[in-house]
Amino acid sequence: MKGVKKQHLPEKNCPVCNRPFMWRAKWAKNWDEVIYCSQKCRRSKNAVKPE
User: Fold this and answer.
1) Is 6 part of a structural domain of the chain?
2) pTM of this structure
3) 30-44 mean pLDDT
4) Which residues contact 28 (CB under 8 A, 6 or more apart)?
5) Number of folded domains that form the chain
6) Which InterPro entries does its entry note (predicted)?
């Protein structure tokens, strides 16, 4: 993803806060497995009831 403009990066929605978050270089190897946008959302994942 080097050399790609920010507006063209892949994006996902966090299931906890429902906010979109973009691809980061540190997630390059496991982007398909990334679910939460932050550690705060990861810790509070049990507070959200599945639909």
Assistant:
1) no
2) 0.72
3) 93
4) 1
5) 1
6) UCP037205
Q: Does 33 reside within a domain?
A: yes
For the chain, what's the residue count? 51
Question: Does residue 37 form part of some domain?
Answer: yes
Exposed / middle / buried, residue 37 (Cβ in 10 Å: 0-12, 13-18, 19+): buried
Has residue 2 been placed in a domain? Answer: no
Domain that holds residue 29: 11-46
Instruction: Tell me which of 8 and 37 has the higher pLDDT.
Output: 37
Helix (H, G, I), strand (E, B) or coil at 13: strand
Contact 17, 41 (CB under 8 A): yes
- How is residue 45 written in tokens? 């994942």
Cα separation of 8 and 27, whole Å? 16
Q: Are 11 and 37 in contact (CB under 8 A)?
A: no
